[in-house]
Amino acid sequence: MSEPSSGGRPATAAPRDGNSDAARLNDLGYRQELRRSLGALGNVGMGFAVVSPVVALYAVSMVGTSIAGPAWVWALPVVLLGQCLVVHVYSELASQWPLAGGPYQWGRRLLGPSFGWMSGWVWQFAVMFGNTTVAYLAAPWVFALIGVTPSPAAMVAVAAAILLGCTAVNAFGIRILSLFVSLGIAAEAVASVLVGFSLLLFFRKHGFSLFTETLGAERLSGGSTAMAFLAVLAVAGWGFIGFDACVSTAEETKDAGRQVPRAMWWALLSVGTVVILNAMAVALAHPDPAAVVAGRDLDPVTTAVVSSFGSWADKPFVLVVLIGFLACAMASQGGAARGVYSLARDGVFPFSRQVRRVNRRQAPIGGLLASTAVSCCALLLGLDATAIGSLIAFGTAATFLPFFLVSLAALVARLRGVRVPSGHLRLGRKGTFLNALAVLWTAFEVANVCWPRAVLAPPGAPWYQIWAGLLGTGAVITAGLLYLLVRRPQERLRALEPPAAGPSGNRSAEPAAGVS
Asked: What is the model's pLDDT at position 511?
């Protein structure tokens, strides 16, 4: 072997113990630069914090109810089932290649350097702009805590401060990040599980028949209940993304090939259960669901909590919700930094030499600074009070696009026979069937989220906000294609490709890309 992609330095000699994560990483062409200290629960925590039931519910509850009334909650189990198909694909790939920067690392091994690089590029910007959205949505809770009505400029300033604070926490390494994320999960348990069960058991104001009613919300979709439900499926997609944060910290997780797939399942299913529980609890405990449909109540979750528990619950509830948002922002930013690091250590990201740097605490400091800079620049959209909706629409669309690309690459490679799953998790023929369903689901959701809908934009919103999902995704893809044509990162990746596949036709039997 010659030089690996890790900064042009040879991979360190690792013990050839089959159970050694360092040995496995060495075989994949990379040396251990990040601190491998996360256990199974720590990896689950990263995924749980990014998916975040608090963030998911607050992002979609009001919009879902206004579009389809209380019946919107039926979209949640549909999206959860669809995302389970994606996790099947991701689990098998993470078991075989437990590397940071999943879509990039897997795509290049499945369908080649150009496809893999583009998958990583799109996924990376989706995560970075997702961080912008989370920080911006967290800012109002800061002002609610101190009882101040913010201006758009103040919202942007506080959101930028949140991003910088999350960068500082991440810079201290994975142990400190894991500690803060654990505190956030504790707050999530209070704000989600405890409050949700209490609302459902003791403060219910309506019967379960409420979930068969739209309360006239479908009029926003031209009177079509089917079109309203399709719009809600697009919105609900935001609530079940982020489980891939478990993959982002794969190189910092012990026994990653086994634990990362399990962690993704635990994160998605636990958050999915809590989100569905709380969505139902809030609807049943809300004093006037028709007010939400009519647009008179823009914060139905807080209304349901305060009207049930009393005004004393207002500030404590705001505090635990804010902590949940901050934990989500920290974990998501950590995932973005590790994705940038994965691209930069192969020399295929702008300013790779600076971006790939790791500090003395074994945190990807270059990736942190780069991802924070991009996320802060995107915050400038928040100076226009309606434009942040464009960022939310783009973030959801751009996140489902990598889900589709990874699922497609895995299916094509499987059908071609160039890949036989060889990790701890192997689904066999069932895996092919589930993979095909994942491709259909993610293709549908990409088209559904990108479909321009005035109903998902504020009244009087400019045309570009209505088309935000398609325009934003198109802009990132166009920029990526130009980078491929001008800088040609795929040529560098080809030089790092492993030898040709062996008789089995399974590339994974060879040292994966990263060494030449």
From this structure: 36
Q: What is the pLDDT of residue 391?
A: 65
Residues 159, 341: Cα–Cα separation, whole Å: 24
Is the separation of the CB atoms in 131 and 370 below 8 Å? Answer: no
**262 near 40, Cβ under 8 Å?**
yes
- Among residues 310, 128, 338, 116, which one has the least CA distance to residue 249? 338
**Digit-coded pLDDT (tens) for 182-196:** 888 888 887 788 888
Q: With H, G, I as helix, E, B as strand and everything else as coil, classify residue 155.
A: helix
Question: Quick one: pLDDT band at residue 265, thresholds 50, 70, 90?
Answer: very high
Going by C-alpha positions, the residue among 271, 150, 321, 293 that lies closest to residue 218 is 293
CA atoms within 13 A on the CB side of 302: 20
For the chain, what percent of residues have pLDDT higher than 70?
A: 90
CA-nearest of 233, 236, 256, 238 to 246 is: 256
Q: What is the pLDDT of residue 27?
A: 86
CA 323/CA 321 separation, integer angstroms: 5
User: Which secondary-structure segment (H or E) carries 315?
Assistant: helix 314-344
**How crowded is residue 301: how many other Cβ atoms within 10 Å of its Cβ?**
24
What angle (nearest 5°) sits at the alpha carbon of residue 218, between those of residues 216 and 219? 80
Instruction: Look at the chain and count its residues.
Output: 516
- Residue closest to 95 by CA, chosen among 223, 246, 205: 246
CB atoms within 10 A of CB 448: 19
| Identity of the residue numbered 103 | P
Mean pLDDT of 41-50: 89
Q: How confident is the model at residue 425 (pLDDT cuts 50, 70, 90)?
A: confident
Helix (H) / strand (E) containing 248: helix 245-248
Provide the 3-class DSSP secondary structure of residue 38: strand
